[in-house]
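Lab meeting, item 3. Inverse folding demo.
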């Protein structure tokens, strides 16, 4: 990969920006043909632009074998990517202002968490066989750079290595982190109804490392 390539430069090309945004919205892997059809583009041109996004480190390619024939490419957002590249400052400012405007009293926090949970349900893709991978893909698409591992007690530990909400957290940590806790619980409601968000531990947004612990069905497989 050309280390001098900047995310913003790559996303300045309209087709690449559309592809990256569409993958972020899907919150799951997608093939070249599916992406081309969704955006009304020729698949050969889409493949070229996906390769440029891969070279820039914004997306990742997987080779998936489905029946006979050659493996097919599946594309997904890279864990190290910042969704949307350089966000317009107006959106960041609006998020900070809204966070500042919400009082962190018990009644409002319950409303915030409930709203976050509803949003999490909306963000969840259709349930697939591997709910943990779907959970991870959504968090990657949202910019959290998640690291998942088994805790000593067998629970799923999800460490979030990036905080895409850091500016808003500075304005009102209790409200923003409560929204995020609700969003995480809502994702689990849809992806793994048997699972339960046991704890959600916020950390300094500049250092990241927030920890979500999930209890539920055996997620490690046989």
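The presenter then showed the designed sequence:
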């Amino acid at each position: 990969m050309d280390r001098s390539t900047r995310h913003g430069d790559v996303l300045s090309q309209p087709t690449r920006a559309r592809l990256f945004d569409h993958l972020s919205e899907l919150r799951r892997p997608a093939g070249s043909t599916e992406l081309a059809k969704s955006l009304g583009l020729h698949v050969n041109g889409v493949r070229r632009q996906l390769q440029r996004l891969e070279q820039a480190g914004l997306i990742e390619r997987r080779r998936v074998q489905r029946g006979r024939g050659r493996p097919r490419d599946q594309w997904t957002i890279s864990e190290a990517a910042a969704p949307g590249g350089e966000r317009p400052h107006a959106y960041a400012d609006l998020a900070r202002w809204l966070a500042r405007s919400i009082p962190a009293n018990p009644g409002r926090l319950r409303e915030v968490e409930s709203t976050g949970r509803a949003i999490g349900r909306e963000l969840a893709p259709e349930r697939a066989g591997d709910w943990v991978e779907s959970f991870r893909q959504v968090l990657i698409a949202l910019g959290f750079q998640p690291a998942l591992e088994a805790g000593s007690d067998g629970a799923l530990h999800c460490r979030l290595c990036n905080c895409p909400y850091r500016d808003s957290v500075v304005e009102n940590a209790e409200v923003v982190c409560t929204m995020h806790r609700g969003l995480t619980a809502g994702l689990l409601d849809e992806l793994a109804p048997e699972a339960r968000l046991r704890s959600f531990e916020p950390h300094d947004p500049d250092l990241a490392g927030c920890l979500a612990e999930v209890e539920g069905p055996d997620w490690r497989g046989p």
